[in-house]
Amino acid sequence: MPNLTIDGQKIEVPAGTTIIQAAEKLGIEIPRYCYHPALPVAGNCRICMVEVEKQPKLQIACYTPVAAGMVVKTTSPKVLEARKNVLEFLLVNHPLDCPVCDQAGECKLQDYYMEHGQYDSRLASVKVKKEKKAFSIGPTVMLDQERCILCTRCVRFTDTITKTSEFGVFDRGDHSQLDVYPGKELDNKYSGNVVDICPVGALTDKDFRFKCRVWYLDHTKSVCPGCSMGCNIDIDWDKSRPHTEKKERVMRLKPRHNPDVNNYWICDSGRYNYHFIDENRILSPQYLDKIVEWGEAMERVAETIQSTKAERIGVLASAQLTNEDLFVIRKLFKDTLKAHVDFRVPEKPGDSDDFLIKADKNPNTAGAASILGAQADAQTIVQKAKQGELDLLYVFGHDLVKLFGKETVAQIAKKTKLFVFQGSNINDTCGYAHLNLPSSVYAEKDGTFTNCQQRVQRIRPAFFPLGESKGDWEIVSFVAGQLGAPLSYKGPQDVFDDIVKTVAGFAGMSYEKIGDQGMILKK
Ligand code: SF4
Ligand code: SF4
Ligand code: FES
């Protein structure tokens, strides 16, 4: 393991480590454009040059491996001068677009120029202009060739990560330009990632362009609910966008680095799956088309439970719920009332690949299995309800019309005393349920999901639940209180601490220990 010194600090790193990686370990960020830790090294932008003692020329930190006894300077006068020159070169043909560029505020050209720029331009010649300014290169992304600094991150992403090779650099010298190959579109399942890795505003996201300046955004760490992979994401949101017609709070989703799950990437279907957070929501409890108070709604559920037997109560829980929600469902309906409870409805598998996308479109199937087990059977519960063998059917989020057909659901509505739908968004089943209860979406929840690797991961609330909606665990606790069997949890963390004591796989875990990387369930 070579020992070296960077900016006066000593460090020992494994052989093969590059200077940029070693510096990062010391908390020193060397500027970079073409370097990205998850892509092959290209070494073409030269912004990362550093001074290495006893070497006559500056070296690029992203490509140069460390050696024993090496002494590196990352901010010497020679290095700073070189950075200025590289920036001057990169800006020769770059347009002065910052006021209208979507990348402004998170653009590495802006950032480094403010740190190292040549503030008085020495250039007299006219910039080379490209024929087209900003144009569509596929369903999700726009390209502005003038803003491109030819770092080739996007080329290497599509060559080595998606292996779809849509991008190339065409022509020579100051006429070189980045484009998609003739007849090709950027249309792969991970296309949005090229916007994240483009260090400037050359590639922008059609869904986010001109929606919100990035410095107005708040960021909340969460997990994508789109499939059982549980990719780590940041929810970027802003509640004060009066000009956005739909008054959406979420502006965009971004991948959050987790080397054990999704590395730096997410799929497009996960990335753009956020409009449901503010669209088509159930906003108040409703009994037979009439808006009612929470107290009245809970009383109706409690009365039905009190007037029936355990074998006449069926509950369809869901793998869309958090571990905390599911545990409270288990406590009340399974452990206390001994009702029929299952979460495994017959869903058709979705698309999948050998990278991130999984066919199971639920974020918490592993968690539901570990917490609820598999005794009852969802299909049998539905059949019982249809045949009039249940007085109460309590459904969490599932669209039974889509799963079992209108006729079955109409029969259930006719044959049960109380048919409850608890969920965040309106679906066809709501029209048949006697009682609709509004619950919060994942972006409004604190809790955990367990992904297909059995990794327990935290989600956090970005903002308050919309309308009168509440957390699923809270609604079920409300029912328990109404029945005189209160579950006295103060919040999801309190529920989680009880899961840890009760469910063997969670032993030794806590929200603090799960942290940002997650923890694997014990076998
Ligand atoms: S479009 Fe962006 S990521 Fe691609 S080469 Fe240009 S600057 Fe780099
Ligand atoms: S692969 Fe699955 S979890 Fe990851 S972003 Fe896509 S839908 Fe979400
Ligand atoms: S970051 Fe090292 S040459 Fe580009």
Features of this protein?
523 residues; alpha+beta; seven-stranded mixed sheet; five-stranded mixed sheet; 15 helices; 23 strands; elongated; binds iron/sulfur cluster; binds FE2/S2 (inorganic) cluster
What does this structure look like?
- The protein has 523 residues and is an alpha+beta fold.
- Helix content is 25%, strand content 17%.
- The protein contains 15 helices and 23 strands.
- Strands 15-14-20-19-18-16-17 form a 7-stranded mixed β-sheet, sandwiched between helices. Strands 2-1-5-3-4 form a 5-stranded mixed β-sheet, sandwiched between helices. Strands 6-7-10 form a 3-stranded antiparallel β-sheet, with no helix packed on it.
- The longest helix is centred in the N-terminal third of the chain and has 14 residues, at 77-90.
- It is elongated and about 85 Å long.
- It starts with a strand and ends with a strand.
- The model has no long low-confidence stretch (mean pLDDT 95).
- Bound molecules: iron/sulfur cluster (2 copies) and FE2/S2 (inorganic) cluster (FES).
- FE2/S2 (inorganic) cluster is lined by residues 32-35, 43-48, 60, 62.
